[in-house]
Amino acid sequence: MEKALNELSAAQAARRIERQEITCEALANACLERIAARDDEVRAWAFIHQKQALTQARELDRTPRRSRLHGVPFGIKDVIDTESLRTEYNSPIYRDHQPRADAACVALLRQAGCLILGKTVTTEFATNHPSPTRNPRDPAHTPGGSSSGSAAAVADAMVPLALGTQTGGSVIRPAAYCGTFAIKPSFGSINRAGLKFVAESLDTIGIFSRDPEDLALALEVLSGRAAPEFAPASGTPRIGLCRTPRWQLADAGTQANLEDAARRLARAGAQVREFDLPPGSEALFDRHNVVIGFEMARALAWEHINFPDQISASLKPRLDEGWKVTRADYDAVRETARQCRRALAEEMRELDFLLTPSAPSEAPRSHASTGDPVFNRAWTLFGVPCVTVPYGKGAHGLPLGVQLVGPMDGDMPLIAWADWAARALAITAA
Amino acid sequence: MEKALNELSAAQAARRIERQEITCEALANACLERIAARDDEVRAWAFIHQKQALTQARELDRTPRRSRLHGVPFGIKDVIDTESLRTEYNSPIYRDHQPRADAACVALLRQAGCLILGKTVTTEFATNHPSPTRNPRDPAHTPGGSSSGSAAAVADAMVPLALGTQTGGSVIRPAAYCGTFAIKPSFGSINRAGLKFVAESLDTIGIFSRDPEDLALALEVLSGRAAPEFAPASGTPRIGLCRTPRWQLADAGTQANLEDAARRLARAGAQVREFDLPPGSEALFDRHNVVIGFEMARALAWEHINFPDQISASLKPRLDEGWKVTRADYDAVRETARQCRRALAEEMRELDFLLTPSAPSEAPRSHASTGDPVFNRAWTLFGVPCVTVPYGKGAHGLPLGVQLVGPMDGDMPLIAWADWAARALAITAA
């Protein structure tokens, strides 16, 4: 049976638009219909201007093809400025806020002929306070955060691609919880002009999709790195199986799932060896919070000083804590992180990627928290690229993910290996 | 004879406010009067709301002292968002633009009881296109850029402290041209939320003052680092005299001036030795442009795509060039910079600071250019702190500066050494 248009991958949809088999408008309509049918339950979208989206789509139908993603709709996490759609960071402090300009990443997408379909729900300022978004696989479960809406919208086939951001684990974790692919690229890959900062030394714009090829095509537009060919990979990878110093925080199903994935990848030809993080890394799993706290207190100083009563009860004490972090402590963590980053680069030299959990469990059955970023934070601090590949199920039947971590600036080879791994794990793209 | 209030250093003024010898309002009035008398010629200010400034000042007079800079007026470069003052980046694209929030650095200053006096003139988006600002020492000469207004306003005693930004040489060079002190802090020292980006991996918020102690007090508020005691320094520094691979671009007067400064500091007790930059650094003096070009094209993508005719004739071709830089080339320069940064840290271990020119000459007699950042760019790329100390005169009688470069995160010791050096060079604080 033929897939509905909203279920196509971005690459599939763009190829059909190129061949004039479908229009951008029809694709946008299919996405909007899916949203109309489902978003009362999922609540993935903060703001959509339907008429404007369809006007854009018709314009793109009349415009010469601008890129391999021409006509493809995107969801944009609502911490990224858009000229044509209000941008509220899920904070009452920014009710009806209308930025003057598009963020750089949005301008790059428009330049490539992509359609900005709407803004996806973020947690408050991309921090931990849960958003109203539900996990589309089971609305009793969290979708994760902070890129809750982007993960849920892509997983639920409301849009083929969406942008999120990660400061701790805000891209990889919700993608794993909702059962999609996602990349948190190398730090510095996607320009951040027009992004509302939480912790500028960590904040990284990432991408959600239902197919690894789509990650590569979107990252090409956004970073200037050339997407690899997605022919069946001829080689096999050298993999470091990295349980991390927090392995005991992964539940039994997640532990078994990762080890199962490693065995299957080995059977598919990969060389798999155990990998321990460099000495000193362990402390960073917790000390990452020192960096976030110090920077977040400052980045949100205006809001904290002027509108303390409009900051959530979970964020406010974190800001107060952030002010207590000393500069010396902050500088020391950053120096340790720099040292570990160099040591990690050295130790990964003979490996193509590390294999590690995307999250400690399936999406928790709760809306009181967005889950635990313990398996994401250190990689964000190291600045290295991470891709999550949906693989396996948890005890409640929700998706699990395995995380591939590559060397700095090795984003495109990492996506190609994620594609290889997904095939080897016999996952068919959704 | 007693100094006029506007001529006081920030530390002097704040001490007199603390002792209730003067009011914040009187200090603000003195600054506003100086501006009224001089700014038709100097053109340092983009926007001042006089009534609002005086209202703020009276409020601060009624408020308990919040910091060692309570009541001190600041000029804010007009690439930094202010809630109460429009922010135009010196671009017609942003005519009458009113940001929703204060930048983090502005919020921190207000929290410390500082007075936001007004916005200082920037070049267009803090790039190279000259601003209307004149050098207060001689209006036929450029004040330098891109922080033209902040340098000129502080040098002309219109305000004791001002914020600027440096991506190439936009803090240190204009300070040297106008004859003030300034610091470009270590990368990561001052939170950049609310700063209009040019090249986010380089953009650094810096501070202008007429006294090194003021740099320390302002940096304490802005970075959380504790300011050192400004007692007469008991020790003497170990100095690396760094002519750089671009020594031949410094004019004869600048070369002689730097060597004279080194001799005088040696006579004052410093150990001075020749210092060569690590192998590979040389290329970075030019390749810095690769990083700026790549990032700037993306950071200003919205403006470039939507308002090409409102971008200056000097910026537009630079953006076009930026789009031609390949990601591979950009990644390669950044990797070389990381390697050189590590090598530099290693080689500076036995030194307190490097001594190097702040600019290749005194301020050029021209308004067609803001001068050459050749002696600043590599340090910005390395992320290390730089302080310029006014010392000597050029052939036209305009000020020269010597630049002190310290190790990463060693900002406060570097300011203390700048104070030592200024005293040793027998400069009396203005």
Averaging pLDDT over every residue of chain A, what do you get? 96
Number of helices of chain A: 14
**What is the CA-based Rg of chain A, rounded?**
20 Å
Reported by name, the CATH topology of the largest domain in chain A is: Amidase signature (AS) enzymes
| Broad shape of chain A | globular
The helix-strand sequence of chain A is HHEHEHEHEHEEHEHEHHHHEHEEH
Name the largest protein-protein interface in this structure: A-B, 43 and 43 residues
Strand content of chain A: 5-15%
Order the strands across the largest sheet of chain A as they lie in space: 1-3-2-4-6-5-10-11-9-7-8
What structural category do the secondary elements of chain A indicate?
Answer: alpha/beta
Describe the oligomeric state of these chains in a short phrase: homodimer
**Ends of chain A: how far apart?**
14 Å
Number of strands of chain A: 11
Number of domains of chain A: 3
Q: Supply the CATH class of the largest domain in chain A.
A: Alpha Beta
- Poorly predicted regions of chain A are none
Major pleated sheet of chain A:
11 strands, mixed
Helical content class of chain A = 25-40%
CATH arch. level architecture of the largest domain in chain A: Alpha-Beta Complex
State the CATH superfamily name of the largest domain in chain A. Amidase signature (AS) domain
